[in-house]
Amino acid sequence: MDKNDFSGKKTAVALGMFDGVHIGHRSVFERTKSFEKNGFRSAVFTFDTESINQKHGKPYRYIIPNSVKLDMIRNAGISDIYCSDFSEIKDLGAEDFVKDILVGRMSAGAVVCGPDFRFGKGAECGVEELKRSGERYGFELSIVTPVIKDSETVSSSAIRSLLTEGNIKKANLFLGYDYRIKQIVSHGNHIGRTLDFPTINQAFCEGQLVPAYGVYSSHVLLDGVSCSAVTNIGVKPTVTDSSVPLAETHIIGYSGDLYGRTVEVTLSDYLRGEKKFSSLDELKKQIKKDTETALGGIKIG
Description:
Blueprint: E1 2-3, E2 11-15, H1 23-34, E3 41-47, E4 54-55, E5 58-59, H2 66-75, E6 80-84, H3 86-89, H4 94-105, E7 108-113, H5 127-137, E8 140-143, E9 148-149, E10 152-153, H6 156-165, H7 168-175, E11 180-184, H8 191-194, E12 200-203, E13 214-222, E14 225-234, E15 246-251, E16 262-273, H9 280-294
Parallel strand pairs: 2-3, 2-7, 3-6, 7-8
Antiparallel strand pairs: 1-6, 4-5, 9-10, 11-16, 12-15, 13-14, 13-16, 14-15
Helix pairs in contact: 6-7
């Protein structure tokens, strides 16, 4: 849990879940930082995305792990973060949230959010109530207009749908960066080595949204160098009967040992759906073809 000491200087507080830290979220952060000219410190109130199991009565799947989210918020120029476990605050009334957290704990002089922000037990209140609270407690409310891309409102829910559909290019457009998997490299069944296409295996976190099963062109950041790669997301039906999805990445031209290291893989294009092949030889031929496609048609081997 990340709860900085907010005592003293007034803050401008950005409110939201900020799952994915997409281009709409960053517009909220930019508005928040604009209050620094008034002498306010920029801050964020958010929830630990991994502490939420359901939203609007449906299973909730987050886009990026909470630790990655917090790093991205800091990299956006906001170092003061109040990140609460959802269970600690879900039964807190709207008035208590404003009085005890925004004003009492975070010393809010300004509050920034989108027009659909809800707060209080059962999401009982919205921006109109928040505006009236600001008038009572002495903070300014600033509402940020949603960002529109391709005639569509950018939102975390829209990005989840795009990832589920395998529309990685549009998801990346909405995110403002290439979707990333940043996890420890674990041991697999080593089948890739027998096919002359060694891979690194990375698990998704519990509760995390898994993009559409299939093969993606990708890049792997190794010691500051971006390497071309091909990533399969799924359950590898040709070689296993597992139901647990993994990201399995072949780094083109790389042969080192990455076990135990935390590696960042970014997805840039969706090449094809996951398929069960009749033989390992057929699988090997397809991996070669996928690799050539990821390289822009350059023949290998």
